[in-house]
Amino acid sequence: MASIDIESVRKSYGPVSVLHGVDLAIKDGEFIVLVGPSGCGKSTLLRMIAGLEEVTGGEIRISGNRVNDLAPKDRDIAMVFQSYALYPHMSVADNMSYSLRLRKTAKDKIASAVSSAATKLGLDPLLERRPKALSGGQRQRVAMGRAIVRQPKAFLFDEPLSNLDARLREQMRAEIKKLHADLKATSIYVTHDQIEAMTLADRIVAMHGGVVQQVGTPLELYDTPANLFVAGFIGSPGMNFLEGRYVKTGEGAGVRLSDGTVVPVAPRAGLAPETTVTLGIRPEHVVIAKDGMLEATVDLVEPTGFGIILHLSLHGLPFKIFTLDRDALSAGPTVRVDFPQKHLHVFDETGSRAD
Amino acid sequence: MKSRSLLLTGAHRLAILAYVVFALFPLFWLLKVSVTPNDLLYSEGVRMWPSRMTFEHFNFVIAHSAFPTFFKNSLIVSGATAVVVTVLASLSGYALSRFSFRAKYWIVALMLITQMFPLVMLVAPIFKMLSPLGLTNSLTGLVIVYSAFNVPFATFLMQSFFDGIPKDLEEAAMIDGATQFIAFRQIILPLTLPGIAATLGFVFTAAWSELLFALMLISGNDAATFPVGLLTFVSKFSVDFGQMMAAGVLALIPACLFFLLIQRYLVQGLTAGAVKG
Amino acid sequence: MMHQPMKHNRPPMMKRIADASEPYLYSAPALILIVAVMLVPLVVGISYAFRDIQLLNPFSGGFVGLDHFRALGQDQAFYGALRNTLWWTGASVFLQFTFGLILALLLDKPFYGRGLVQALVFLPWAVPSFLAGLNWAWLFNPVIGPLPHWFYALGLMDEPHNILSDPHLAMWGPIAANVWWGIPFFAITLLAALQAIPRDLYEAASIDGAGPVQRFWSITLPFLAPTIAITVLLRTVWISNFADLIVVMTNGGPADRTQIVASYIFTQAFKRLDFGYASAIALVLLALLLVYSMLIVLLRQTMLNKG
């Protein structure tokens, strides 16, 4: 097991820069999830750690040793690919033992490593099959098995679940989590799915446009998003945003919306009065109340079974509410809503969180 | 409506039948004359099948002529060429498929140009160059020349097969501890077997058919390939049709066998190659 | 594996050289062969065009400037060969393409036994070209082949004779063999292109009310156009250089009526052993083909610009 240090790592293809200096210290045994929309540079960063992409600038260290110029085979890491990349002409057992055979490990050691990994993943009855004869979930397990047999310094996952259907994805997610609890291996996991990020990570690294936006535990990112991007990206349905101006009031502070309504918020020390701000509130934190402060038109009612999503127009802009209250099914044509102060997020003109 | 579609189907099948007959008739005629006894050859000229069959022509060709030597020479030349070209084209096709490097554009351009210029242009200079090396009248010389002629197309063919194999597989192998070359040999090559078969077959057939350079570079029976042997035979004894056609049938066998084996892959590869060209 | 920590950011020299040279190592053997056996002889061949190279004359080899080209300007046989090349290439490509396209369209429809039919109709392509030539020469031979007798029976001929020895008809012999031999190439290429057309396009078109003919013109043809353009271009160049069938079937005769430029070059080199003159003709042929390719590329460019 190993720590991984990433120090102002940059990547560019000719004149096009895709990573603008990433710093990240990953502790031994930690499960890190890189999350962000496609094109944010998360996969590039992972492939640089694996040695599949050259590092344009900065330094990557595994267990303190600089690995920038090491071939992938000399880095002692394992990787699970989105396509699984199983060798189609080898049996499951051969797929799993390939790395050990390349290292000329003794036959009996290979056999015991493969069989213990297979048992862990429930692959015992499939060892002689070819990948073609496996289901998607089974292939996924083989890909994981191939990674764990050699007990590498770190595991890299490149969107490993995105080719599975929803139910299987949920199941494999739990298995990956259990496996990590069991092996305690340093893991870096790339995904664009924020639910995977929330459920799996010790710490999430949210990326956008080749820049790290925020690093923190899942709940830190959820409760105190550092900027508008993280606030909008984490959570589903996504956070609601309202434009307004920051104002001082008699009792404290507030945000004045376009119609003149002032939504009271806790005072923000760094904000001058009358600066443009964005007010954010998660759909599940909005309260429907007869005497609510704001009125919104109901456009659409979406029952999910578990709860209800109301699609509203607030000052002509889309706005969502998530509620467990079944009465909301018959809401309309307008509802009045309130924003509890402790759940309100305020972002300044640059989009950064203001506290 | 129903009868109209029936009519269309009928016309379709009839057209297909016409093509099949057109494609096979010349070969059928070759076979027919090769088994017709000499005394019936002229009296039953346009009959579809002789009233009596014989294998004496085949017997003669195999036992009493130089054709077995020609056959053997052709097999050696075509087989060696196919192997050499396939090995070289696998390597170069892999380079074109997997690496981006500065000279790539020029290599592709060079290979395309060699497909464009008339090979007859090279007859004289190649003869002049090979002659002092003792490579005229030698099977080795033919193998070298044929290999060079076939490498460009085979490279494009192999490249298109490599392009069909996801890059993830090599990357997985490299992370598993392989160098790029080991990944190429242990992971990629085994997956390209259909492509390798197609390339082998294509080059074998091309070398088996080549006539002009063989005529120019080979004199005398010892190193003559089948086309050369058959053609000298034709111009010397242009009367014994039965024997010539028996020899023709024999020449047809390896090429057709190869073709039927790899037909499916060839269609795949040729398309890719043709579109690239 | 231990690694020395390094402060500078450039990879070590050795690794960079190794990385950069890898693709060249893979392509080197093929390149060396191509350069040695094709490119060098090409350059040498161009130089021959300006020298007196006769294989049986030990005193030849001198520089003769443009003499060969002057002789070529006076050479009626060469002009005849040029006309014949146009005729041979035009007729062969047109017929191969037409019948190839029809065959591809026929095979694009699923029917019972398609795999077998496909293998059978593509078989001529596997027949060695010299054998195809001999085979057709024999079919046209009234002594042994049925064709003259059939033509006679149909009233196309006064008596069963060999068209290969008739100066007016001889060219049709190699063309027939070439069409027979070359249809599969076009059919294979076009069939693959046909099968790459998304099926739902046809379904959408028929729902929109397009008949089979409209579907062919509005979907099939536009999709095939690039493949057609490139295969016809390549095939034209290839066939104009393709002398095997002519050498085997007629050897340029009768009275040079089937001599094309490629077979003329071969005759000069092989029969007269006059390599200098042969190379001069080859150079002219190369120039003509380059002009032809250039014209096609230009034509394509203007069409693209208009479109």
Automatic annotation (TrEMBL), chain A:
UniProt-recorded Gene Ontology molecular function terms? ATP binding
Please list the residue ranges annotated as the ABC transporter domain: 4-234
Where, per UniProt, does this protein localize?
Cell inner membrane
Work out whether the entry's keyword set contains Transport.
yes
Q: Which Pfam families match?
A: ABC_tran, OB_MalK
**Membrane topology reported for the UniProt record:** Peripheral membrane protein
Q: Give the keywords, sorted.
A: ATP-binding, Nucleotide-binding, Transport
Q: Which family does it belong to?
A: Belongs to the ABC transporter superfamily.
This chain's protein is named: Sn-glycerol-3-phosphate ABC transporter ATP-binding protein UgpC
Question: What organism does this protein naturally occur in?
Answer: Mycoplana rhizolycopersici
UniProtKB/TrEMBL annotation, chain B:
Q: Which UniProt keywords apply?
A: Cell membrane, Membrane, Transmembrane, Transmembrane helix, Transport
Q: Which domain of life is it from?
A: Bacteria
PANTHER family from the UniProt entry: INNER MEMBRANE ABC TRANSPORTER PERMEASE PROTEIN YCJP, MALTOSE TRANSPORT SYSTEM PERMEASE-RELATED
Task: Give the matching Pfam families.
Answer: BPD_transp_1
Gene3D superfamilies, per database record: MetI-like
Q: Where do the TM regions start and end?
A: 12-31, 75-96, 105-127, 139-162, 183-205, 211-234, 246-267
Location relative to the cell: Cell membrane
Question: Where would one find coiled-coil regions in this protein?
Answer: none
Q: Describe its membrane topology.
A: Multi-pass membrane protein
Q: Please tell me whether the keyword Membrane is annotated for this protein.
A: yes
User: Which family is this protein grouped under?
Assistant: Belongs to the binding-protein-dependent transport system permease family.
This protein's record includes keyword Ligase:
no
Q: What is its main location?
A: membrane
- Limits of the ABC transmembrane type-1 domain: 71-262
Give the source species.
Mycoplana rhizolycopersici
The protein depicted here goes by the name: Carbohydrate ABC transporter permease
TrEMBL record, chain C:
* Keyword field: Cell membrane, Membrane, Transmembrane, Transmembrane helix, Transport
Q: How does it sit in the membrane?
A: Multi-pass membrane protein
Domain ABC transmembrane type-1 per the UniProt entry, residue ranges: 82-296
Q: Which CDD domains match?
A: TM_PBP2
Where in the cell is the protein located?
Cell membrane
InterPro entries attached here? Answer: MetI-like (IPR000515), MetI-like_sf (IPR035906)
Its transmembrane ranges are: 24-50, 86-107, 119-140, 179-198, 219-239, 275-299
Under PANTHER family, the record lists: BLR7065 PROTEIN (PTHR43005), SPERMIDINE_PUTRESCINE TRANSPORT SYSTEM PERMEASE PROTEIN (PTHR43005:SF1)
What family does this chain come from, according to its entry?
Belongs to the binding-protein-dependent transport system permease family.
The protein's name:
Sugar ABC transporter permease
